[in-house]
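Notes from hallway chat w/ T.B., transcribed later so I don't forget. T.B. wanted the structure written out for a chain they're using in a teaching module, and asked if we could keep both sequence and structure tokens in one place. Agreed to drop them here.
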Amino acid sequence: MSIEQEVEILRKIPLFANIDSAKLKLMCFASQRLTFTAGQSLCDQGDAGESAFIIIEGDADIVVQNNGPLVVAQVGKNDIIGEIAILCDVPRTASVVATSELTALEITKDLFFRMVTDFPEMGVEIMRVLAHRLEHTTALLMAAREGAK
């Protein structure tokens, strides 16, 4: 896949929709394209977060260890994952395990922060993504609490 094709894929992701094509090309050039097989981990809970991933193709489970593995979400094409660890400088909060062949762009912490600094609208979109995830997690927690009564 060419850099131009990767730029077109990124342009479809709300996080990158308003970013200049030249900057997206730079990001594609500076990021690493990785392929994972079904069952392979992109990252593991507790590891240091040195990068985020943008899924180009494929699907994965978000898994937390809580008396055994627990799938808490599924992600797929155009999703960004791993940003919490690099934004908060904390260990990975979950593992990400490919459920199909998966292709992703790995964006280093330094590149990620340069992009957010150069394009503040990326920061706003990241806040939206994280707020949606928090709302979803809160709803699941409330449902679990109601079910436990």
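Follow-up for T.B.: Residues 40 and 98 are 6 Å apart (CA to CA). Might be a good example for the class.
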